[in-house]
Amino acid sequence: MATDTLKSSTDTGGVAAARRVLLNNGALSALVVLLVALSFLSGDFLSTQNLLNVGVQAAVVAILAFGSTFVIVAAGIDLSVGSVAALSATVLAWSASSAGLPVWLAVVLSVATGVASGLLSGLLISFGKLPPFIATLAMLSIGRGLTLVISQGSPIAFPDSVSHLGDTIGGWLPVPVLVMIVAGAATAIILGRTYIGRAMYAIGGNEEAARLSGIRVKRQKIIIYALSGLFAAVAGIVLASRLASAQPQAAYGYELDAIAAVVIGGASLSGGVGKASGTLIGALILAVLRNGLNLLSVSAFWQQVVIGAVIALAVLLDTLRRRG
Amino acid sequence: MEGVRKVFPGVVALDGVDFDLRGGEVHVLLGENGAGKSTLIKMLSGANRPDGGRILVDGGEVRIHGAQDAEKLGIATIYQEFNLVPALSVAENIFLGRQPRRFGLVNRKQMNADAAALLARVGIDVDPRTPVSELGIARLQMVEIAKALSLEARVLIMDEPTAVLTSEEVDKLFRIVRQLREDGVGIVFITHHLEEIAALGDRVTVLRDGRSVAQVPASTTEDELVRLMVGRSIEQQYPRERAEAGAPLLRVEGLTRGGVFRDVTFEVRAGEVVGLAGLVGAGRTEVVRAVFGADPYDSGTIEVLGKRLRRHDVNAAMDAGIGLVPEDRKGQGLVLDATIQENLGLVTLGRATRAGFVDRAGQRKEADRISGQLKVRMAGLHQHVRTLSGGNQQKIVIGKWLLADTKVLILDEPTRGIDVGAKVEIYQLVNQLTASGHAVLMISSDLPEVLGMSDRVLVMSQGRIAGELPAHEATQDSVMALAVGTAPAEGGNATATKDVEGSRGH
Question: What is the pLDDT of residues B14-68, one digit of tens each?
């Protein structure tokens, strides 16, 4: 109804279009409200430097969340992404320093570790018939455990050439933000344009109908979890390069932030629904909130309370909007 | 209800419908799928709210905003999909949320006793402590009715309650409905079986395209009712145009799966419609699922055009040109929350992919073409399939196989729960397919349909092909004789049951 009346008002076409976009996208409106509110509350918030800082803070969770978007659209769940990110970063650091491998090979090994972890989860789910929750919970524990084994519990310095990923380009654009944008674009293209992407929506929407329509569901699921592992590895490398070292406790609990970002972005945990743009917005909301609360010097303890409330509120608003 | 109106995005589902119900009457709501019957009753049960018009109960206007409001007004609804919790017992389901309590705890003894009394009233012999998951469909329905009785409903709405029942169960249901009518309950009854109207109804309201077109007494002739329903008279119910049968396309030999089907052998030729008849549970669905590769089998062979198919491999069957329109349209045929375009493109998704990328413009064009050809009634290709009527949903399932240029299309109960108009459209589609040299293998429990549309009828009984009849020899009697033939001991009853059920088709 609302959109119809807006369409008919021609004089303010641009404004009307913007309003329509906001009305149809609860998460985006929430982000805009947050940005406006914080820019009033804190003078420092709107500075370019701070906004880029927010981008950097959002990057790791966003990249993890893009990978999780694939899994969640296909009606699965991946709890292992935080551990896999830490494991991949540790493999990179260890093979470049302790094992003395060339850096490019270390990077390849690191990414391969992420993909292999995802493949293993996928195999357990497709052929072992384990529920995704259990298979990836196991992988969460295995990934964290291996990280501790390899690193023997202490941080390993990251090779300098890779640590540049934590720097900026041209003195202002942080590389993590760039990686996040590239990963987001890749996610949008995969979801919208590729076979595997369309298969994710079909499997998440109705797995049996997808199977009886000739989609090789088991094979696709393995690829989907491998993709999630790939994105986790990228996120792990970005995180470690920011810290200039692979830390065994890095990305601890990030899988929940990733899932929260996907869900705030409008995806459904029962599958079949979700978009890359939504996930990006979800990750940005989490980062803006943390940053803003820091600027307002809200204690870290209360921050958790606020973030929990916002997650509930964002999803609640979205649900109400859809019903109404 | 006065001038009730409901608009869904892009579709006016109901437009100024008047409907009234008196205590102690059975008021039949008749109309094609998509005519607005479900929308109308959802407004009475609180699942939808009207955009216009009023709902009056006992002369006073009411607003029904949810299931609780409906419950308070004494309106109970029994949907086609039951609202029961499988893991809980019969008694718990009947009193769900209203369990009799003592000291804050559920008083199981009293609950079970009350449930037993209600179950006796609807005439089924079930221990109230039985988990609902152990009951068959007919008994589930009786549990739903018992639940409605426990609410002391004054208005009972039943959405196609007979669609899934055997004729014996239907008789039992009718007895209970008549009893309720005598008790002064007003009953809204939705059915596609016209002969049930004369048997049970008092008045009939006919809906067409969201408007009430007529209110007539239940004694109105069936022809007249059909005319009112579809707005034209349907000259030929089964417009089969028989084509010359060509070379064998599909050959199944000695197909066996332990305990399910045995030594099933048949072939389907180009240009043929082969009907697969038999009682429910004879193994028909299991056989076609095995042919399609959806389920495994133990021994035997399946050949398409002389080439053997790999066992339990849907893709091998698809590549060879077999398509399956499954029995459970919503559960297995469609991605309900995806768009029409998405669903139509599902089977051809792989073919429309180059280097991992899907040609979406091409897919849209194809979807547009086929939905036009199938006359799908929709707001646009981006409408979600969930919001389509049953007949239009079925057209989408068939459409996705037509796009894949399927050689042998297997239809499992293709017209179940579909109105007369859409049925004929589907039959015409079958004609087009066979005229262009494709073949159709059709399972149906609707005997007149099998007889009217098939060139040959295969009859299955207890997992075996009991016999094969050419179209001119097949009659309801000869088919039923084969369907129950191998088990005369328990067959007598089934014959009677199925015979009547078959003719209930129309």
Answer: 777 888 888 889 999 888 766 778 788 888 888 887 787 788 888 788 888 887 8
Nearest by CB to residue A195, choosing from B333, B337, B353, is: B353
- Contact flag B342-A202 (C-beta cutoff 8 Å): yes
Whole-number Cα distances in Å, B448 to A45, A262, B171, B278, B468:
74, 52, 21, 13, 17
CA A33 to chain centre: 22
Which secondary structure element, helix H or strand E, spans residue A82, and what is its range? helix A81-97
User: Which tokens hold the place of B336?
Assistant: 């309900």
> Do A214 and B318 count as a contact with CB atoms less than 8 A apart?
yes
> Is the ipTM here above 0.95?
no
CB-based contact A210 B346, cutoff 8 Å: yes
Report how far residue A157's alpha carbon sits from residue B417's, in angstroms, rounded to the nearest whole number: 67
Calculated CA dihedral for residues B191, B194, B199, B202, nearest 10 degrees: 70
As a whole number of angstroms, the distance between CA A167 and CA A293 comes to 25
In whole angstroms, what is the distance from residue B45 CA to residue B51 CA?
Answer: 15
| Distance, CA of B452 to CA of B436 (rounded, Å) | 20
The percent of residues above 90 in pLDDT, for chain B, comes to 33
Q: Answer yes or no: do B336 and A202 touch at CB < 8 A.
A: no
Query: If you average pLDDT over every residue of chain A, what do you get?
Result: 90
Q: Are A215 and A202 in contact (CB under 8 A)?
A: yes
Q: For residue B505, is pLDDT > 60?
A: no
pLDDT at residue B245, rounded to an integer: 80
pLDDT band at A8 (very low <50, low <70, confident <90, very high): very low
Burial class of residue A239 in the structure, from the number of CB atoms within 10 Å of its CB (0-12 exposed, 13-18 middle, 19+ buried): buried
Residues 6+ apart with CB under 8 A from A98: A156
More confident residue, B152 or B501: B152
Nearest Cα residue to B144 out of B181, B90, B189: B90
| Alpha carbon distance A187, A179 (integer Å) | 12
Question: What is the domain partition of chain A in residue ranges?
Answer: 43-251
Choose from B291, B337, B347, B363 for mutation: most chain A CBs within 10 A: B337
pLDDT digits (tens, 9 = 90+) for B471-501: 888 887 788 778 876 444 333 333 333 333 3
Of the residues A207, A212, A218, A322, the best mutation for testing chain B's interface (the one with the most B CB atoms within 10 Å of its CB) is A212
> Cα torsion at B417, B418, B423, B426 (round to 10°)?
-100
Interface test with A, best of B322, B349, B396, B398 (most A CBs within 10 A): B349
Identify residue B15 by its one-letter amino acid code.
D
Counting every residue written for chain B, the total comes to 506
Report all structural domains of chain B as residue ranges with CATH numbers, in order of start: 2-230 (3.40.50.300), 248-321+406-504 (3.40.50.300), 335-402 (no CATH)
B294, B336, B360 ranked by CB distance to A206: nearest = B336
Chain A residue numbers touching B322 (CB-CB < 8 A)? none
The pLDDT, as a whole number, for residue A217 is: 95
A with B: how many residue pairs have Cβ under 8 Å apart? 75
